[in-house]
């Protein structure tokens, strides 16, 4: 019976093609508008690391106090806690073997000098971090792997690069053991990362939140020694001041280092939270702080909410676009009603030949579903246009938000068909109520 009703629906689409096209266009425009905003929202609100999101935590320590935290240039957080750490605190937490894995990190912009003299130097984003970064965030490798903990301790010149950078410099070959020069220092390639681009870039929300991840990674300890001039490109000081030179930055109360720990169990979380509280209390007792110790430990989803990664205006825009979809569906409902009632004669003859109300209802509902499928396909094309336009209008770093995934395609098609079926219920019911006697009278 499905094939029979499908055949009737396809034949019905060819009747009054102008009305059919108008319904498809109305649905397509509504789907295009709503799916454009929904796709962006889904990318912004997505879980960048679902398999470990509840095991990854960002610690915070109040080293500014109730007055400094509200000063110009301070951390913009609801509870006035600095959302990054000082060098003193980051290195102290790295020395404490309390968490299963831990990594301090900071982003730099470094000039890379290729080994091939024919290639000019160019600047790339580099993340200085610790070896635990890669295992903690499940970073996949194409060749090799991360440097070792002993390399961190030895301040060794090691580097891990992305697949894109490896293709650019080494033609995609296994580049382990090759060297790269940053500034005056040569770094040995120990690993090449496979495709890895978490969205949002949760481990550093201060800049380029929805942009691409870094192109190279090097030991934090080495970066402090050899790339110091490039470290701390984003420094928040509140009302604190920075001393002269690198040592002045390292000893100041300015925050500029991101820090993450992996805590697999609830007991680990409780233990680490108590450790942070004890650490802050020790700092107060030593005279560094003169206010009650205050700390926070948030997992990855809580961290994204804390930083309001999904702007309220984006959610409002999604609501408005779905309201526009509802208006389009009301127009589609009127057009479907006109389309079905225009065929009252043929439907009345079919009823006179023995077709039940349900058969006519199924025929028209199948036709509405086929129109919904056409509207969904048109909506997908308009969604792609809308996302391309958003890429041009949004900052360059937000281009990652405009990728249409397979899930988004499925949502668009199902939404179009489902919404059209709902909009077609009343026109279909009216069509099924056609009285055969009115269409069988002799003129």
Q: What features would you highlight for this structure?
A:
six-stranded mixed β-barrel, 10 strands, 2 domains, 14% strand, 443 residues, alpha+beta
Structural account:
By secondary structure, this protein is an alpha+beta fold. Residues 70-76 have low confidence and may be disordered. The radius of gyration is 30 Å and the shape is elongated. The longest helix has 37 residues, at 357-393. A 6-stranded mixed barrel has the order 2-3-8-5-7-6. It folds into 2 domains: 2-47 and 312-439, no CATH class; 63-262, no CATH class. 38% of the residues are buried. The chain contains 15 helices and 10 strands. Helix 2 (17-45) runs antiparallel to helix 15.
Q: Provide the spatial order of strands within the biggest beta sheet.
A: 2-3-8-5-7-6
* SSE sequence, one letter per element: HHEHHEEHEHEHEEEHHEHEHHHHH
Mean pLDDT: 82
Q: What is the rounded Rg?
A: 30 Å
The strand count comes to: 10
For the biggest sheet, the summary is: 6 strands, mixed, barrel
Task: Please report which band the strand proportion falls in: under 5%, 5-15%, 15-25%, 25-35%, 35-45% or over 45%.
Answer: 5-15%
What is the count of DSSP helices, taking H or I runs of 4+ residues? Answer: 15
Low-confidence stretches: 70-76
Report the span from N to C terminus: 35 Å
Helix content: 40-55%
Q: What is the number of independent domains?
A: 2
Computed structural class: alpha+beta
Globally, the shape reads elongated
């Amino acid at each position: 019976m499905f094939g029979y009703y499908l055949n009737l629906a396809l034949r019905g689409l060819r009747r009054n093609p102008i009305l059919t096209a108008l319904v498809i266009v109305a649905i397509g425009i509504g789907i295009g508008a709503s799916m454009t905003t929904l796709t962006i929202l889904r990318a912004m609100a997505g879980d960048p690391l679902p398999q470990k999101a509840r095991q990854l935590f960002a610690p915070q320590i109040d080293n500014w106090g109730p007055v400094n935290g509200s000063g110009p240039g301070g951390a913009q957080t609801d509870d006035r806690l600095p959302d990054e750490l000082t060098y003193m605190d980051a290195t102290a937490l790295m020395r404490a073997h309390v968490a299963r894995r831990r990594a301090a990190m900071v982003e730099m912009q470094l000039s890379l000098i290729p080994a091939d003299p024919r290639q000019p130097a160019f600047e790339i984003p580099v993340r200085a971090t610790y070896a635990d970064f890669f295992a903690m965030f499940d970073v996949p490798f194409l060749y090799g792997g991360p440097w070792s903990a002993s390399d961190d301790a030895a301040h060794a010149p090691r580097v891990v690069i992305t697949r894109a950078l490896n293709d650019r410099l080494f033609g995609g070959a296994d580049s382990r053991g090759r060297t790269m020069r940053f500034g005056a220092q040569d770094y040995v390639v120990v690993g090449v990362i496979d495709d890895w681009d978490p969205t949002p870039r949760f481990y550093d929300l201060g800049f380029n939140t929805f942009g691409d991840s870094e192109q190279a990674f090097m030991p934090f300890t080495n970066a402090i020694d050899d790339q110091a001039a490039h470290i701390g490109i984003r420094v928040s000081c509140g009302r604190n001041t920075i001393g002269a030179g690198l040592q002045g930055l390292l000893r100041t109360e300015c925050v500029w280092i991101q820090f993450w720990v992996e805590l697999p169990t609830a007991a680990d979380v409780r233990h680490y939270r108590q450790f942070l509280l004890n650490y802050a209390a020790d700092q107060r007792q030593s005279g560094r702080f003169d206010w009650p110790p205050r700390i926070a430990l948030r997992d990855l989803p809580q961290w994204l909410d804390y930083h309001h990664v999904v702007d309220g205006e984006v959610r409002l825009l999604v609501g408005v676009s779905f309201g526009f979809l509802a208006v389009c569906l009301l127009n589609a409902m009127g057009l479907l009603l006109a389309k079905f009632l225009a065929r009252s004669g043929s439907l009345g003859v079919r009823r006179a030949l023995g077709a039940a109300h349900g058969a006519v209802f199924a025929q028209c509902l199948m036709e509405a579903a086929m129109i919904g499928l056409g509207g969904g396909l048109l909506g997908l094309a308009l969604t792609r246009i809308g996302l391309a336009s958003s890429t041009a209008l949004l900052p360059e770093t937000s281009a990652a938000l405009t990728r249409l995934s397979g899930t988004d395609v499925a949502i668009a098609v199902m939404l179009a068909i489902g919404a059209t079926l709902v909009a077609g219920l009343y026109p279909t019911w009216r069509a099924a109520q056609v009285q055969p006697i009115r269409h069988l009278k002799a003129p």
